[in-house]
Design a protein that fits this description.
Oligomer: single chain
CATH superfamily: Nucleoside Triphosphate Pyrophosphohydrolase
CATH topology: Nucleoside Triphosphate Pyrophosphohydrolase
Helix content: 10-25%
Largest sheet: 7 strands, mixed
Distance between the termini: 38 Å
Low-confidence stretches: none
CATH architecture: Alpha-Beta Complex
CATH class: Alpha Beta
Number of helices: 2
Structural class: alpha+beta
Number of strands: 7
Mean pLDDT: 97
Shape: globular
Strand content: 35-45%
Number of domains: 1
Length: 131
């Protein structure tokens, strides 16, 4: 089975985190943390900064690693590194997603997360990243 090595950003701002609705591909309409594939020669951190710029036209500051997720989808294995990030300016624009929401502890379960991202939600709750 093919392995996809990806990164995701848990963008935290004022006690809430950013969730995005996929705008394309096999999982279109599912909710996820923004990010994407690690290209050859990139570190996970470099890939994350690049992907967030490409997807959201945003600049992020990586604060710290949160968790790794290993998940088997029917057609591939996902290996995802997840980082808590800040948004130094409030600018972001949805370039590849249908929608985005800022979620807190009460609303984090209000979107239909993609299966692998459910593990990230669990790690966020355990780390008490949101209020």
């Amino acid at each position: 089975m093919k392995t996809a090595k990806v990164v995701c950003a848990i963008i935290e701002h004022e006690g809430r985190i950013l969730a995005t609705e996929r705008g394309y591909g096999e999982f279109e309409g599912g909710w996820e943390f923004p990010g994407g594939k690690v290209e050859t020669g990139e570190t996970p951190e470099q890939a994350l900064v690049r992907e967030i710029h490409e997807e959201l036209d945003a600049t992020i500051v990586i604060r710290h690693w949160l968790c790794d997720v290993e998940y088997d989808y029917p057609t591939f294995h996902l290996s995802m590194k997840c980082y808590v990030c800040g948004l130094p300016n409030d600018h972001l624009e949805l370039l590849e997603h249908h929608a985005a929401r800022w979620l807190d502890a009460k609303t984090i379960d209000s979107v239909p997360w993609l299966a692998a991202d459910e593990q990230v939600v669990k790690a966020i709750k355990e780390a008490k990243i949101i209020r």
